[in-house]
Write a structure and sequence with these properties.
Number of helices: 9
Distance between the termini: 34 Å
Protein name: tRNA (Adenine-N(1))-methyltransferase
Helix content: 40-55%
Pfam families: TrmK
CATH architecture of the largest domain: 3-Layer(aba) Sandwich
Shape: elongated
Organism: Cytobacillus horneckiae
CATH topology of the largest domain: Rossmann fold
Strand content: 15-25%
Number of domains: 2
GO molecular function: tRNA (adenine(22)-N1)-methyltransferase activity
Bound molecules: S-adenosylmethionine
Strand order of the largest sheet: 3-2-1-4-5-7-6
Keywords: Methyltransferase, Transferase
């Protein structure tokens, strides 16, 4: 069985698309997608030796070596142009996911869809997508073991289409903002509690220019989120 988090990622894989899962670790996602007939073939990319071996072991154990290639390398460098139709990158920070996309841009030329699951900082991904011709087409949020995960889905298109207020949308997610699922409220209430705690601390500290700036930034973020989260 796949974790709820990875199942939520898998839900956005279009049937019949060739898949690359980057930072695959145990290759659970590609194994699941192939075994369930969602995709005809897959590539699992891993940069670290241990997880790379785990991925190879898992694919062999499931008898899928003919249809899943496990490749060792940094980000999208394990792919050739036109080899896959959908790329998943899950379980990392948003800034790392954005840097993998940025460094491997040329490999995305024929890719139709990106499914990205940042553990933190989804804003980095939304910003990258918008700057690189990818239109955000769906978002989801799942809660598992007290952790809250975001899933972002993008295809090439009109980068500004989903956004109303850009600042709010990039931080909170335009689809999530509209739907406000339960984990969304929980996540941002948690964040705000955290920001307010930090704010109180800085307000007690020395009133230098740096702290004044930090206070203003935090107050602005709190106002922004309070204005959106119901
Ligand atoms: N994608 C799986 C999931 O969501 O359960 C595994 C997540 S695991 C926390 C992150 C994996 O990404 C690690 O195995 C790590 O080695 C790999 N990774 C990190 N940076 C990478 C990069 N630049 N290229 C390929 N893999 C990378």
């Amino acid at each position: 069985r796949l974790s709820q988090r990875l199942e939520a990622v898998a839900n956005y894989i279009p049937k019949g698309y060739r898949l690359a899962d980057i930072g695959s670790d145990h290759a659970y996602l590609p194994c699941y997608a192939v075994k369930n007939g969602m995709v005809p073939s897959a590539i699992a990319g891993e940069v670290v030796e241990g997880p790379y071996q785990s991925a190879k072991g898992q694919v062999a154990e499931e008898g899928l070596t003919d249809v899943i290639a496990v490749r060792k390398g940094d980000g999208l460098e394990v792919l050739s142009v036109g080899e896959v139709d959908v790329v998943t990158i899950a379980g990392m920070g948003g800034a790392l996911i954005a840097s993998i996309l940025e460094n491997g841009k040329t490999k995305l030329e024929k890719v139709q869809r990106l499914i990205l699951q940042p553990n933190i900082s989804a804003i980095s991904i939304r910003t990258w997508l918008r700057n690189n011709g990818w239109e955000l087409i769906a978002e989801n949020m799942v809660e598992e073991d007290e952790k809250i995960y975001e899933i972002l889905v993008a295809e090439r298109g009109e980068v500004d289409k989903p956004y109303g207020n850009l600042q709010e949308g990039l931080l909170l997610g335009p689809f999530l903002m509209k739907e406000q699922p339960a984990p969304f409220k929980k996540k941002w209430q948690r964040e705000m509690t955290n920001w307010k705690r930090i704010l109180t601390q800085i307000e007690k500290a020395e009133k230098n220019a740096e702290n004044v700036k930090k206070i203003e930034e935090l107050q602005q973020k709190i106002r922004l989120v309070e204005g959106v989260v119901k």
